[in-house]
Structures are given as C-alpha cells and as structure tokens.
Write a structure and sequence with these properties.
With about 190 residues, the protein is an all-alpha fold. About 70% of the residues lie in helices and about 0% in strands. It is built from eight helices and no strands. The relative contact order is 0.09.
Length: about 190
C-alpha cells in the first residue's frame, strides 16, 4: 500500500499520518526556515552590506549583492541543513557575488572606450574621510586574496578558521595572506603620506 503523504525517511509507515513533532523535525532537517532566514536578514543585513562595501566600491552594487545573496540563500534554503550555518553561507555568497561583480566591471572597463569621470576632490570630506579614502585606496592596491582575508578577518570579525572555511583555503594560507596584506597596507599607507 502506498501512503498518500509519501514516506521520505522511512519513519512513517504506509498509511500513517505523521505527528506534528515528526513534521517539525522533517521540516528542520529539510533546511533553513523562512522565519530563520528573515531573522538572519534583520540581524545581519548591515554587516553583510559592510562586507560587500569593503570588496566593492559603490553603495548600489553592495546593496544589489547583499539582496541577491539573500535571494539565492532563500532559493537554496533546503540545502542549508544546519540553520547555524546560514550566516556563513550568506557571507560566502556575498564574497562570491562581489567577485563576480568585479569581474563584470573589469570586463566592461576593458570594452569601454571613453574614460571614467573623475572622483570628487578630497577637500569635500573631513579628515576621517580622507584617512578612510587612503585606506580604501591602499586596499585596492593589494592582492585580491590578501584584501579578502583582511576584510573578513578584521571587518567581519571572523576567526582565522572561519576565514579559511569561507574562502576555501588552508589556515596557514589565511595567516600568510593576512600577514603579507598588513605589510603591503603599511607600505602603501606610508608611501601615501
């Protein structure tokens, strides 16, 4: 006899209606819930936006990347089996989408024949803004992987192990990229003064 509800786990016998507890366990095992994803959005949207801002250079692209990350995680929430890993999955998606945005931007710059408009003068901002601009400029001058490690480690406040997992590299590589990135930043910042 075939159960009208179907049995995916073998825990329900044919013809037996699962109890509410069994249904809740199967739903939780099926992936991240919409409610959990909504709460994650409320709590971590700004930090993910900041992460994207350090990898990209304009607010609109950052917002697009973070929104797209939430849309993709929502679409694939059944694959995120452990709700505790939803934030890590979102961070990885933001990093990957930022990389893709940068790739598209580089390709469009190669195909673009006219020059880009000049940036606003430094006199328009306060001293803090100038320092921030110098840091961002120095960050753009270091290697991509070093920049990613520094952003995740110091801005996103991730441990070295979390950075390694997010970027898919070894812990030793995280330490090496971080050390070399800080040294390169120090040289670039001193050269700018």
């Amino acid at each position: 006899m075939i159960s009208p509800l179907g049995s995916t786990r073998g825990s329900t016998r044919a013809g037996k209606v699962p109890s509410p507890r069994e249904s809740a366990e199967e739903t939780a095992a099926a992936g991240t819930t919409v409610d959990h994803l909504t709460e994650t959005y409320r709590q971590h949207y700004r930090s993910l936006l900041g992460l994207a801002a350090l990898l990209l250079d304009d607010t609109a692209s950052c917002e697009d990347v973070v929104q797209e990350a939430f849309i993709r995680v929502h679409s694939a929430r059944s694959r995120v089996r452990d709700p505790e890993k939803t934030l890590a999955y979102l961070r990885q998606t933001v990093v990957n989408l930022s990389r893709s945005a940068l790739r598209r931007r580089i390709l469009s710059l190669k195909l673009l024949s006219k020059p880009m408009p000049d940036m606003a003068s430094a006199e328009e901002g306060a001293y803090d803004q100038l320092e921030r601009d110098d840091l961002i400029k120095a960050m753009k001058g270091i290697q991509r992987r070093q920049r990613e490690v520094l952003v995740l480690r110091y801005f996103a406040d991730m441990t070295e192990a979390q950075v390694a997992e997010t970027l898919g590299i070894s812990l030793g590589s995280v330490k090496a990229y971080g050390s070399r990135g800080i040294a390169a930043l120090r040289v670039a910042m001193e050269a700018g003064q």
